[in-house]
Amino acid sequence: MNHHIITDITNFIFVSDEPEKADAIFLPGGSHPAQPEYASELYRQGYARWVIPSGGVSVKRDKWPGVRAKADIYNGDYQSDCAFFTDVLLKNGVPASAIIGENQSGHTRDNAFLSRKVVDERGIEIKSALIVCKAFHARRCLMLYQMAFPDVEIKVCPVHCYNITKENWYRSETGIDRVLGELTRCGNQFVGDIKNFVR
Length: 199
Prior knowledge:
Helices cover 41% and strands 8% of the residues. The chain is an alpha/beta fold. Helix 1 (3-13) packs across helix 6 and helix 4 packs parallel to helix 5. The chain is globular.
């Protein structure tokens, strides 16, 4: 693959910001503990008041897939991404009073818009937020959360999972599949939205 093409794809997909103090930390669904562990670290350092884990069971599966790492530590009978993330948060020092969970979503768009619903139902105002997501998922998460929270200033604070990084993604079939899959979804999942923007 042409080096310039790799660079362009990398720069688009792997969004990354330095953490800044914010009102909330969004956690789009997953089954890897790196996300909620990093969110817990940011919370303990005073970066946000609220942590908002999101996720039910993926629309691609009929049940929750199980913990992807550290199953000896995180060994609950989890039935959803949100339940798993919440347990990791609690075990890493985030109090239950700071956690606003959403456990109905089956994909990233739902993560964003159902998180917005639970926030609005609680009457919580969010003006700034961090997203803690998988690094190769960063651009799509940012796009969808920006749509759900259009007036919120959002920064992306990614974590590396499955040994896929911006430096090595194009060196393995798994990395290529994940990243180019994200590139495709950043196009085809937004077709209707783009049409609405230009009306």
